[in-house]
């Protein structure tokens, strides 16, 4: 699997996880509309989740790229 495919797969997983996590955490009284406090919770939690995800994914892809580069250099020799 190349890094681009992995990136797309991870983005899909993040979208699914964020929906589940945020709805369970922020929507306390399901109904026809979302309250102001629920909207605020959704916004704050989304920001936190995406910031944390970006840190982790940047580190992951950096390591993955280093491993790929090492493997490529071994294949040349």
Automatic annotation (TrEMBL):
<comment type="similarity">
    <text>Belongs to the small Tim family.</text>
</comment>
<keyword id="KW-0143">Chaperone</keyword>
<dbReference type="GO" id="GO:0015031">
    <property type="term" value="P:protein transport"/>
</dbReference>
<dbReference type="InterPro" id="IPR035427">
    <property type="entry name" value="Tim10-like_dom_sf"/>
</dbReference>
<keyword id="KW-0999">Mitochondrion inner membrane</keyword>
<comment type="subunit">
    <text>Heterohexamer.</text>
</comment>
<feature type="domain" description="Tim10-like">
    <location>
        <begin position="18"/>
        <end position="60"/>
    </location>
</feature>
<keyword id="KW-0811">Translocation</keyword>
<keyword id="KW-0496">Mitochondrion</keyword>
<keyword id="KW-1015">Disulfide bond</keyword>
<keyword id="KW-0472">Membrane</keyword>
<keyword id="KW-0813">Transport</keyword>
<comment type="function">
    <text>Mitochondrial intermembrane chaperone that participates in the import and insertion of some multi-pass transmembrane proteins into the mitochondrial inner membrane. Also required for the transfer of beta-barrel precursors from the TOM complex to the sorting and assembly machinery (SAM complex) of the outer membrane. Acts as a chaperone-like protein that protects the hydrophobic precursors from aggregation and guide them through the mitochondrial intermembrane space.</text>
</comment>
<protein>
    <recommendedName>
        <fullName>Mitochondrial import inner membrane translocase subunit</fullName>
    </recommendedName>
</protein>
<dbReference type="GO" id="GO:0005743">
    <property type="term" value="C:mitochondrial inner membrane"/>
</dbReference>
<dbReference type="Pfam" id="PF02953">
    <property type="entry name" value="zf-Tim10_DDP"/>
</dbReference>
<keyword id="KW-0653">Protein transport</keyword>
<dbReference type="InterPro" id="IPR004217">
    <property type="entry name" value="Tim10-like"/>
</dbReference>
